[in-house]
Amino acid sequence: MSKKQIEKNFELSEKLAIFLSKNPKKMKAIPKDSSFVVFSATDKLLNKINEKLIESLVKEGRTVIKAQETKKPESPWEFTPSCL
Amino acid sequence: MGKKFRRKRRRTKPENILNIPVMREIKKVKTYQKSATIVLTPEDQIIYIYERDENNKTIEVVNVSYQILIDSCWVTIIRFDSEHGYLHGHRRVTLDRESEIVFTANFFPKKGGPRRWLTWSIQHLKEKYLIYKKSFLKEKGY
Question: Which residues constitute the domain of residue B123?
Fold first, then answer.
């Protein structure tokens, strides 16, 4: 994983954090102790790495929510629960 | 008459005859955890815990967390660990919920190891703690 991709990962998590704090209604439907894993709309390599992360988190027994970035301005994130 | 030799019997071990798996002693590696706190300001601190083996080699980053003081309670905003064999971060979304965003932060995939991950994560938090603090508190109106 290159430095640029790490930065992308940080930026993406920052985007999601801002979105979630601005949209508390979206958070209500999601379990309180869930872990979000971000997926980029453009970066496939980053998504591949994060897919592995989901696997290990699910094995650990955590509630994992896949947060997929979209290109739609009206709904910039799509959330789906993940399981093995 | 020739000299008598006592024939040596080849003794086969019972486990070889019966094909019993032999229990071998597993060498236990002694590990110990070390922890420290870096005080950035009276309201900000970095706490880190790492595991070392008997040769003093860092084998795991248990936790590197950045905490802020809110209403006389230390709250972790972001933390790094290497539980799954690679470095990843957990970022808290809001104060009232325990939900977090998990992201991979594996800087040195080939050369790196827990020792470099530990150094990197401490350094990263030292440099960027204000950014994390601002974005966390912005929406809360603190």
Answer: 31-138
Q: What residues of A are in the B interface, CB distance below 8 Å? A: 1, 3, 6, 9-10, 12-14, 16-18, 20-22, 24, 27, 30-38, 49-50, 53, 56-57, 60, 67
* CA B115 and chain centroid, separation: 10
Q: Is A50 left (phi over 0), alpha (psi -120 to 50) or beta?
A: alpha
Residue B9 included in any domain: no
- Section A26-37 average pLDDT: 83
The pTM for the full model equals 0.77
Residue with the larger pLDDT of the pair B30 and B105: B30
Let me know if residue B11 belongs to a domain.
no
> pLDDT band at residue A36, thresholds of 50, 70 and 90?
very high
The conformational region for residue B68 under phi > 0 = left, psi -120 to 50 = alpha, else beta, is: beta
What is this model's ipTM? 0.84
Q: Where are the domains of chain A?
A: 3-82
For residue range B122-140, list pLDDT tens digits in order: 998 999 899 889 888 875 5
In a domain, B88, yes or no: yes
Q: How many CB atoms lie within 10 A of CB B45?
A: 18
A53: nearest CB among B88, B93, B107: B88
